[in-house]
Design a protein that fits this description.
single chain; alpha/beta; Rossmann fold; 6-stranded mixed β-sheet; two-stranded antiparallel sheet; globular; binds 2-acetamido-2-deoxy-beta-D-glucopyranose; GDSL; lipid metabolism; signal; lipid degradation; SGNH_plant_lipase-like
């Protein structure tokens, strides 16, 4: 947050812009009365927020150009991407209708049947993660919102059909990265870093994450993709701040390296407790490391430089209308200092559906055809 004043100024600018363009930044959702289609529910942080923060007075937002430049509307929507984000790239393949942010006033009537997105940029597993962004929807509140949503759906289609829709739906939850980037490592001697060494902090946040997943299960979720953190030390923001010669930042890589395997273990023992494969982990860290170690093999020009930004690796500050913007956005793994480009998101989605290496205990194609007893 070396550019905090800029961040604040920009946020006010963005907030005003949002009120002008907010209403027309999404294509109109298709009403969908077919309840046999899969609904899709999304929880988490900026990697999966599709516009909830547009409705909040927060500095964590992506609602001004050039965000959304490759989105079908070519307008910013609140997604932290040049185009589609990961939930969009997954949603395209599961026959879910377009899902709206929970805070979008259009999330009523038939639109409720498609599911909803509860994610909020800036949040983490811990309540004290992202406090610098002021108003964000923390995990416990995202789950409260999901309960509110269920109440509305019950009013529309009744309790029994609601339970069925929720039980059969696909869920995606993505959080944890900010507990390092926007909490532990945010400033030297952060409160959490004084309280815990990294090898103790990781099990602590994993145990808090288990409580979140357990509540999601209690609220009816039965098919849940849980992504690990990305390669935190290799994102352009980390390279810009810590890297001498393009090497990934060691402390953040160590953190991700501890977090992801412990997440896999926690999820696997949670599934055992439940007695079913409710939670599926996606080792996004390793999927993305493939592009990062060998970008050319995936048709990328670079995995180090962000497409939109400024400073070394285009990794400093925010992506704004004044930033450097690359010509060929599909040649970049990273759109901005932290977030993958649309093309990288599509490749991660492919891995989620059809991959064999990074999906535990099964990939999404397999999960979607499984018809286990979901009661
Ligand atoms: C986070 O906040 C919620 C209430 O919003 C509370 O129930 C929960 O215990 C808090 N978590 C921690 C670890 O303090
Ligand atoms: C997964 O593989 C199937 C069969 O090859 C293909 O039709 C489908 O498009 C793939 N899905 C994704 C998301 O790549
Ligand atoms: C992943 O998906 C493919 C189909 O696209 C399937 O053949 C394969 O067995 C699956 N792998 C696992 C580990 O589930």
């Amino acid at each position: 947050m070396s550019n905090f004043p800029l961040c604040i100024i920009f946020a006010f600018l963005a907030f005003n812009l949002a009120s002008v363009i907010g209403a027309e930044n999404k294509p109109p959702p298709t009403p969908n009365a077919d309840t046999t289609r899969h609904a899709f529910f999304v929880f988490g942080d900026s990697l999966v927020d599709n516009g909830n923060n547009n409705f909040l007075a927060t500095t964590a937002r992506a609602d001004s150009p050039p965000y959304g430049i490759d989105y079908p509307s070519h307008r910013p929507t609140g997604r932290f991407s040049n185009g589609l984000n990961l939930p969009d790239a997954i949603g395209e393949h599961i026959g879910a209708g377009p899902i709206l942010p929970f805070l979008d006033p259009a999330l009523t009537g038939q639109n409720l049947l498609n599911g909803a997105n509860f994610a909020s940029a800036g949040i983490g597993i811990l309540n004290d993660t992202g406090i610098q962004f002021v108003n964000v929807i923390r995990m416990p509140n995202q789950l409260d919102d999901f309960e509110t949503y269920q109440g509305r759906l019950i009013d529309l289609i009744g309790a029994e059909k609601t339970k069925k829709l929720i039980n059969e739906a696909l869920f995606l939850i993505t959080c944890g990265g900010n507990d390092f980037v926007n909490n532990y490592f945010l400033i030297p001697n952060s409160l959490r870093s004084l309280q815990y060494k990294i090898p103790d902090y990781v099990p602590f946040i994993i145990s808090e994450y288990e409580k979140i997943l357990t509540r999601l299960y209690e609220l009816g979720a039965r098919k849940v993709l849980v992504t690990g953190t990305g390669p935190l030390g290799c994102v352009p923001a980390s390279l810009a701040k810590h890297s001498m010669q393009g090497e990934c930042a060691a402390d953040l890589q160590q953190a991700a390296g501890l977090f992801n395997p412990q997440l896999v273990n926690m999820v696997s023992s949670l599934n055992e407790k439940i007695g079913n494969h409710v939670f599926i982990t996606v080792e996004t860290n390793l999927v993305s490391l493939n592009f990062i170690n060998n970008p050319k093999a995936f048709g990328f020009k670079t995995s180090q430089e962000a497409c939109c930004g400024q400073g070394p690796y285009n990794g400093l500050g925010l992506c704004t209308p004044l930033s450097n913007i690359c010509q060929d956005r599909s040649a970049y793994v990273f759109w901005d200092a932290y977030h993958p480009s649309e093309r990288a998101n599509r490749l991660i989605a492919q891995e989620i559906f059809n991959g064999t290496k990074y999906m535990k205990p099964m990939n999404l194609s397999t999960l979607m055809v499984m018809d286990y007893n979901i009661a």
